[in-house]
Known about the structure:
- This protein is mainly beta.
- The chain contains three helices and eight strands.
- A hairpin with a 4-residue loop joins strand 6 and strand 7 (205-221).
- The N and C termini lie far apart (133 Å).
Amino acid sequence: MANRCSGLVFAGVLATAVSFLRAAHAQPTEAPPAATASSEPSVEPPVAPPKEPPTPPASYERWILTTELLGVLAGRYGVQVEYVLTPRDTIAVYGWYLTSETQGTRTLIEGDPDYLYDTRTRAGGIDAQYRRYIGGGKGGNGGFISPGLEFHDYVAETSRECASSYGYNNPGSTGCPSRPSFHEAFSYLGGTLDIGGQAILPVGLTVGGSAGLHYRRVVAGALGDTPHAWSWAISHSDGLRPRLRVWLGWAF
């Protein structure tokens, strides 16, 4: 009986020791680390500065209406209409009409002429140009270069009479020979190239001018060697010629 009790006590001690050893050698299950706030400061993505609204384009007048001053002095009346396509590109169309009567010799200076001429001219035309404003020029304001085309139609009638020096130049003559009037009707077609500038004042008043060349040829009628009175404002000839224009008007 004593041996049986001793065996039970030994068995119990042994089981307890085994359980303790198992517990000591068992790998503890690590709990996942608790979420903690990072010690490093959080980095936020950069924020772009707000964009400034785009600057609206400068306003400018769309239409420019002018008349040519030098043409008025020559008896040529007309209106030029310029339309602004873009800040640097415009189209200018100039329509004009002329009535003129000039008296004098065939050339500007002619000593002791035989005849004096009286020339009556009626004409009309249209000039069309593309203008490209350069440098700081915009909206029809500033310097420009402008190629273009022109069409002009002329009717001229010239009569003549003997000058006071006719008898001196033709001794023995019995009088001044009569001669019918000379009649011409012809049309020009040509190309132009001008360089100029235009200024539009704040109130809309517009002033401008240009200088350039035009080349024209007779495309209808006939341009003969018909004598006529010389005129600085009217040219009865074709070919390459200079041209000068000055205008005044209004932009709106």
